[in-house]
Amino acid sequence: MPPTKIPFITLNNKTKIPQLGFGTYLIPASKAHELIYKACKQGYRHFDTAAITKNEVEVSGGIVKFIKEEAKQTGSSFDEIRKQFYYTTKLWNDDCTSHEAATKGIDTCLQKAGELQYIDLLLIHSPLMGPKNRIATWSAMQDYDTSKVRSIGISNFGVKHIEQLLFWDGLKIKPVLNQIEISPWVMRQGIVDFCKKNEIALEAYSPLTHAKKLADPELVDIAKKNGISPTEVLLKWSVQKGFIPLPKSTSTEHMASNFNIFNHKLSEEDILKLSHPEAHQPTGWECTECD
Predict the structure, then answer these.
(1) Any bridge partners for residue 23, and if so which?
(2) Is 54 helix (H, G, I), strand (E, B) or coil?
(3) Reported pTM
(4) What is the DSSP letter of 173?
(5) Is residue 233 a contact partner of residue 51, using CB atoms and an 8 Å limit?
(6) What is the rounded CA–CA span in Å between residue 95 and residue 133?
(7) Greatest Cα-to-Cα distance within the chain, rounded to the nearest angstrom
(8) Domain membership flag for residue 291
(9) How many domains does the chain have?
(10) Does pLDDT of 3 surpass 70?
(11) Secondary structure of residue 169 in the 3-state scheme
(12) Is the pLDDT of residue 139 over 90?
């Protein structure tokens, strides 16, 4: 079990998601299976992958390996332990060209989830396929078997993209969350405020800025003041802002230390000092303003 109790956020469909996940972007398939298994042993229960990362089979396989071992050791059933895990994947743009294409894409994602049996959260990876195909894709997602795809959401969507979905007269299921890059240097306040107003949760990928800001003087000062690492400060900032951070780590030591964020709290002064709402310094993909 996790070394520290991880809080949950309740989504707008009343399901719950752990407020700390494990990102798998750029983890090669050759290493993903064992790394994810190790992350499970360290206490992670929330994993985020995608069709484009080409490691879905290995990520799900690492989780399954751990669940089977845990079931054997504890005498619990596979299904009982599976319920402790939260598995997210995403449809890539190539699968978002029509209702039929999206349905086939979901089928493929589900096949790659393997013995996990279902997907806890499926996201549209980006809005880049354009308005017509975004609607067609969402239509396929909300029509899919809800026992196989429990929740659906979006990623890298800006306000105008979300508005299109919310104002579509065929909408039956509202996105449960929007996964975007968020850090103190790319706070996206307009998107954040809009999502919160519409009860759409926010996941923060690249919460550690791909290590580009770990030597920032203000960040280092706050870390020293609190007796924690700059990495822990960034994750704690994200959690205290109400986001769901998705750090990635290949080190078991760092995996374990990430749980420390639930054992301390930053002051409001520290939060304000670290926040830069005027900045826009994404460290990765930026498509929230596309048509």
Answers:
(1) 48
(2) coil
(3) 0.97
(4) S
(5) no
(6) 10
(7) 55
(8) no
(9) 1
(10) no
(11) coil
(12) yes
Share of the chain above pLDDT 90, in %: 93
Q: Does some domain include residue 1?
A: no
The tokens 């990635």 sit on which residue?
248
Report H helices in the chain. Answer: 29-42, 56-74, 78-82, 99-113, 131-143, 159-167, 189-197, 217-226, 230-240, 252-257, 268-274
Residue 2 lies inside a defined structural domain of this protein = no
Nearest residue to 88 (alpha-carbon basis) of 47, 141, 35, 39: 47
- Per the domain annotation, does 287 fall within a domain? no
What's the CATH code of the domain at 88? 3.20.20.100
- 246: which 2 tokens? 């998705």
CA distance 239 to 187: 13
Q: Residue 57 pLDDT more than 80?
A: yes
Range of the domain at 107: 8-274
Token pair 């060209």: residue? 97
Q: Residue 30: is it exposed, middle or buried by C-beta count within 10 angstroms (0-12/13-18/19+)?
A: exposed
Mean pLDDT of 47-64: 98
